[in-house]
Structure formats: structure tokens, C-alpha cells
UniProtKB/TrEMBL annotation:
Coiled coil: none annotated. GO terms for molecular function: mRNA binding; structural constituent of ribosome. GO terms for biological process: maturation of LSU-rRNA from tricistronic rRNA transcript (SSU-rRNA, 5.8S rRNA, LSU-rRNA); translation. Belongs to the universal ribosomal protein uL29 family. Residues 1-18 form the signal peptide. The keyword Nucleotide-binding does not apply. Keywords: Ribonucleoprotein, Ribosomal protein, Signal. It comes from the Eukaryota. One of its GO terms (cellular component) is cytosolic large ribosomal subunit. It comes from Glycine soja. The keyword Plastid does not apply. PANTHER family: 60S RIBOSOMAL PROTEIN L35 (PTHR45722), LARGE RIBOSOMAL SUBUNIT PROTEIN UL29-RELATED (PTHR45722:SF2). This is 60S ribosomal protein L35.
Length: 86
């Protein structure tokens, strides 16, 4: 009786339970990712896990935006090109 009980509390059983639960949670998360693929907003647990500073950083689009004044300055005073005759 004692040996039988020990088997059910053994490392093998705990490991197999953990493996099953891992597979179940992975499938659930994959299904959620598929469901939210076309949505505008993602739940927090599906968003990429990055550092806090990286998450708060400007996106590439936001960083590349220019003010009207900058646009006009570049338009009216373009970078001068020089050719040197050898």
C-alpha cells in the first residue's frame, strides 16, 4: 500500500502533470493569439515582454515625424552638392 501511494506522489507523476499543463496553456495562448491577430489592441499577457524603457520608447514612425518648420527648411534650403573637377 505504501509503495503504491509513493508512486502517485513521485517525481515522475509530478513531471507528467506539469508537462500536460504546459501543453494545455501553450495551446490556449496560441488560440488567443490567433483570435486577437486582427484586433487593434492586445491583452497585456499577449504583448511582447520587453523592458519598461523599451516599451515607453517612441515608435519608429513617431520618431521620424517632422514639424512643418523642419519640412519647409529642408524644402527651401536643400543640402548643397559640390562636384570637384580633377
Amino acid at each position: 500500500m505504501y509503495v503504491f501511494f509513493y508512486f502517485f506522489c513521485s517525481k515522475v507523476v509530478r513531471l507528467s502533470i506539469a508537462q500536460v499543463l504546459t501543453v494545455i496553456s501553450q495551446k490556449q495562448k496560441a488560440a488567443l493569439r490567433e483570435a486577437y491577430k486582427k484586433k487593434k489592441y492586445l491583452p497585456l499577457d499577449l504583448r511582447p515582454k520587453k523592458t519598461r524603457a523599451i516599451r515607453r520608447r517612441l515608435t519608429k514612425h513617431q520618431a521620424s515625424l517632422k514639424t512643418e518648420r523642419e519640412k519647409k527648411k529642408e524644402l527651401y534650403f536643400p543640402l548643397r552638392k559640390y562636384a570637384i573637377k580633377v
